[in-house]
């Protein structure tokens, strides 16, 4: 009887440790690469290098764009820029990431928008080249396009 209780207790402890291990295990990176760089042309508003950072949780994904070279033309309040980042799918079509998330920026500060939410499917391969970033600031639409493929390559979602 005593050995039976010990066996049950050991099994319960082992199960609890396994569950705790799963709860605290780091999540696997679902999108590869997690960051990519582009050179963007924003027409009359300038342009330059920018970094795209992607995350994924199931079919939900976010992308944040940040740049020290693309600068705010005026002081901007937090969450005041309406942004749509459209990426091109490898098999055809596009996926849009849209939102109004941005930090407050002083005139001349580097631009950061996002995280911008979007929906992806397993196997989606998304590229900035051929797509666009549209920023609506004080009712004025600024459109930026990538001058070439992103580096190190397209975002591939699991």
Describe this protein's structure.
This protein has a single domain, classed as Immunoglobulin-like (Sandwich), CATH 2.60.40. It is mostly beta strands and 158 residues long. It starts with a helix and ends with a strand. The protein has one helix at residues 2-24, and strands at residues 31-32, 35-41, 47-57, 60-71, 82-89, 94-99, 110-119, 125-137, 140-146, 155-157. The chain has one helix and ten strands; from the N terminus they run αββββββββββ. It is 15% helix and 50% strand. Strands 1, 2, 3, 4, 5, 6, 7, 8, 9 and 10 form a ten-stranded antiparallel sheet that branches.
In short:
With 158 residues, this protein is mostly beta strands.
Secondary structure layout plus pairing:
Elements: H1 2-24, E1 31-32, E2 35-41, E3 47-57, E4 60-71, E5 82-89, E6 94-99, E7 110-119, E8 125-137, E9 140-146, E10 155-157
Antiparallel strand pairs: 1-10, 2-3, 2-9, 3-4, 4-7, 5-6, 5-8, 8-9, 8-10
The helix/strand class is mainly beta
Low-confidence segments: 1-28
Mean pLDDT across the residues is 86
Q: What's the count of strands?
A: 10
Question: Which architecture would the CATH scheme give at its second level?
Answer: Sandwich
Shape: globular
DSSP helical segment count = 1
**CATH class, please?**
Mainly Beta
CATH fold-level name: Immunoglobulin-like
